[in-house]
Design goal:
Layout (H helix, E strand, L loop, with lengths): L7 H17 L3 H8 L3 H8 L7 H11 L3 H7 L15 E4 L4 E5 L9 E8 L4 E4 L7 E9 L1 E6 L2 E6 L3 E6 L3 E5 L5 E8 L2
Antiparallel strand pairs: 1-2, 2-3, 3-10, 4-9, 5-8, 5-10, 6-7, 6-9
Helix pairs in contact: 2-3
Length: about 190
């Protein structure tokens, strides 16, 4: 349990997760059944006693029918048509070595968005399902090497390569080289 004040972003994410659950009229037990995440983990994330991991947020986004960018933009200030580089929200999952920067100005009415991802050498992050089934993604690797598994197919990417995928099942992203893998991910909701 945390002894210091929660991180402000974790607190806003936790509050938004609690709002979403309440909006659906679900108990923690019902959400645990739907998401496959324990009641205690859900409770601690809602109270910002823990920092939600990318895998946890992905499971909850799936249940709520949102992309991670949508969820994260809902805890940020009012959307603007232009977001300067210094104002683009950055979220970090220290446990997995994943850093995510929301490049696109958030807007609920748009289906597409750009995200910059960075995975430290050896970082390995797996998602058991997409946040929204049929999500279209275009991953353009800028630096490093990356191994992307979509379902049962493994793709080895080098800098400059671009992978297009429509995601219905599990995916895995692994930084396969000695340097940080940095990529742009274009996400288009179905």
């Amino acid at each position: 349990m945390r002894t210091e004040d929660p991180d402000p972003v974790d607190a806003r994410i936790g509050a938004r997760l609690a709002e979403l659950r309440a909006g659906h009229g679900w108990s923690l037990g019902e959400l645990a059944e739907r998401s496959g995440v324990s009641r205690s983990t859900l409770s601690r994330a809602e109270r910002a006693e823990i920092s939600a991991t990318a895998a946890l947020l992905n499971r909850l986004c799936h249940v709520y029918g949102r992309t991670m960018s949508q969820l994260l933009s809902e805890v940020e200030a009012e959307p603007a048509p232009l977001v300067r580089a210094a104002g683009q929200p950055v979220w970090q999952d220290d446990a997995s070595g994943f850093v995510r920067r929301s490049v696109s100005p958030p807007h609920a009415g748009l289906r597409g968005e750009l995200v910059e991802g960075r995975l430290t050498p050896g970082a390995d992050i797996a998602y058991d399902r997409p946040p929204v089934p049929g999500l279209e993604q275009h991953l353009w690797l800028l630096d490093g090497t990356l191994e992307v598994t979509v379902g049962d197919t493994v793709h080895h990417l080098d800098a400059g390569d671009c992978l297009r995928m429509r995601v219905f099942g599990p995916t895995r992203f692994r930084s396969a080289g000695p340097e940080t893998a940095r990529y742009v991910l274009a996400v288009v909701r179905p």
